[in-house]
Amino acid sequence: MRVLVEDLETAAGARLATSWQAPELAVIVPSYNERDNIPVLYDRVGAALEGIPFEFIVVDDNSPDGTAAVVKEMARRFSNVRCIHRIGRRGLSSACIEGISASAAPFFAVIDADLQHDEAILPRMYAKAIDGDDIVVGTRYAGAGSTGEGLSSAREAGSRLATRLSSLLTGTKLSDPMSGFFLMRREVFDEVAPTLSKDGFKILLDIIVSATRFRTRADRTLSIGELPYRFRARQAGESKMSPLIVVQFLGLLLSKLSRGLLPTSFLLFGMVGGSGVFVHLAVLWLTHETMGFNFTNAQLTATIVAMTTNFVLNNELTYADKKLRGGRFWIGLLSFYVVCSIGALANVSVATWIYSASPDLFLAGIAGAVMSVVFNYSVTRVFTWR
Hints:
The protein has 13 helices and seven strands. The chain has helices spanning 2-19, 38-48, 67-77, 92-101, 122-130, 153-170, 186-192, 203-217, 243-257, 264-290, 295-318, 327-357, 361-383; strands at residues 25-31, 54-60, 81-85, 107-110, 135-139, 182-185, 224-228.
C-alpha cells in the first residue's frame, strides 16, 4: 500500500512538473486603491512578456476600494497571479520588499499599478539583465525618455531636484535614481535585503546605495543599465504623491548618509520633535503675552499643545504604516502624553547630572534633549505604535 501511495505521489508530481513552468521573472506590483488599473496592467504585462515565464504579484495594503478582492478573483483564473493582502501594514518600500521576498524567480521587476510606467520595455529590461546588468532602470530623464503628461511642472521640478540629491548620495551617473520602475537580479537584492529601510516610497534609491556599498566592500562592481520610456498620465484612481513622501524621502537620504546608523523613522521622529519646539514657543508667547496667562499656565498649555501636534505629525509621517485611527488614536495620544512626560523627567535628570559634573549650559541642555528624544522614540515605538 505504501509503495502504491508513493507511486501515485510520484506520478502526480511528474504531471505537475510537465504542466507547470517555473517563472523566470516576477513582476511586483505594490498597490493601494488600484482596483480598476490592476486587470489592465496584467493584460498589458502579459502581452509584453509573451514567451517569458513570469508571475504577477500584487502586494495590496488592504485597499478600501477592494483591490485585493479583484486580484484574488484574477488569481482563480490565472495561475501566475498572486495576491499578498497586507493588513495593518502600509508603505511602498515595505510592500516591495515583501513582494520580492515572496518570489523565487531569479529576476524581478517593480512597476507601479497606476499604468504610468511603460510595461512594453520590460522584455528589453529583462534582456539587459540576462546580458549582465545587475539592475536595469526605466528612466524618464535620458535618451528618448520623458515625463510626458505624467507629471505637473511643479512635480517634475521636484523630481529633478530629488534626482540630483540622490545622485550625490549614490555616487553613480544615473539619470533617474528616483524611478519606481526597475528590474534586477534576485541575488543583488538578497545581498542587501536585511539593510533596506521599510519606511518611505523610494526603494530603488535604497537598493542602489546599499548594493553599491556592499559590492565595494567585497571588491566587486554593481552594473546598472538604463532604458528610456515615456511616463504616462494616470488612467484611474488618485496619485499617492503627498508631503508625507517628500518628508520620508529626506529622512531616507539622511539615514543613508549615516550609513543606516540612524533609522529613517528615528530621523523623522527627530524632525517632528524639532517642529514641536517652534510650536511650544509660539503657544507660550501667544498665551502669556496675548492671552494673559501666568507663566506656569502658559508653559503647561504650550507643553500639551506641542505634545499633541507631535503625536499627530508622528502618526501621519513617522508611523504612517501603523497609523492609529478611531479609538486607538485617543489611546495612543494618552500613552504619548505619559511617555513624553517621563521623557521630560529623563531630560531634566540627565541635563542636571551633566551640568553638575561640568557646568557647560549648552552641553547639558543638548545632552538632555537627545536623551529625551531617544527615550521617547524607543518607548513610543513599543507602546504607542506597536
